[in-house]
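Sequence only, no structure available. Ideas?
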Amino acid sequence: MKQHKLNVVLCGTGTVGGTLLTQIAQQQKVLKQDRGLDLRIVGIVDIFNIMINPDGICLEGFNMEQFREDFKKCPKSSLETIHDEVLKLNLTDMVFVDCTASYDIADLYYDFLSKGISIVCANKVAASGDIEHYKKLKRTALENDAKYNFETNVGAGLPLIHTIDDLVKSGDRITKIEAVLSGTLNFIFDTISANVSFSEAVQRAKEERFSEPDPRIDLSGIDVIRKLVILARESGYSVSQEDVEKHLFVPQEYFDGTLDDFWKNLPNLNGQIEEIRSTAEKAGQHLRFVAKLDATDAKAPKASVSLERIDIQHPFYNLEGSNNIIMLHTERYAPHPMIIQGYGAGAGVTAAGVFADILDIVNV
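Reply:
I predicted one. Tokens follow.
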């Protein structure tokens, strides 16, 4: 069996990063025995601490709680330290894995890709930000025989971006996308009822760790807008966040002020949301926060996000919990679209998606 070696630097030791480490620790021996892959963690970093070992950090008997205690004792870190230490490793077959949401960390991608270091990221910042920078990163990866994988930017572990990429590369054209892309918002609208208020549903989403620590990121629609932009770009269209038509259900004043102000004021929305919910229920409909791309006219694609009332005949009607769903209308998949559905939130599936992106770096 041909042997492969892959050297991984993990940035971010939070919920997703910690879960990823646990998954890698459980799978390292299997990958080596069954696939001939020596997957080595040569660095674990965040904005506070840094742990580097070019020979590989031992994960045998890995325990996340014990690791966190040990990691706190490691040398102090900084953005400059992360940048310099990763480049100093100078190892072949190397991948930098970003499990943060940091703008500063995303700014490191270009330098790493320029040196042939592949990037795997759950961080949406780079792929949904400045479009010229996005194109530059994609181009730099190709020019330096590196990969820039960000499948988990949309749909956690669902194969959305890879599927779109395969369709486009094979000559198909995406004409329309309809999707529920926020596991958090779908959980909230699947939870609210005559007995469960909107504010209570938001609190439950936070407790279940479906939402961001600051739920305003989800409720503002920013997360969905970023995901829609990424899908549009991967479909071949030059779409930016500013191009997305926004029909939001939480007024702007709820996002001003502190997080404490938000939680204090949120119950004031309960009556308004309940009116929307009960009206939909009486009509036999469910509420879904829907992202759409209409590229029927390829030269003038239109993108939008809005809270919609979904009829029972629609594929989105029975979507449960934190699941995501995407309908891809293409020139080949017409008139019946391709539908991909499954868990769209959660540390386990997101970490698994990142893990799959890491394994995609080598052909095993």
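The longest strand covers residues 37-45.
Hope that gets you unstuck.
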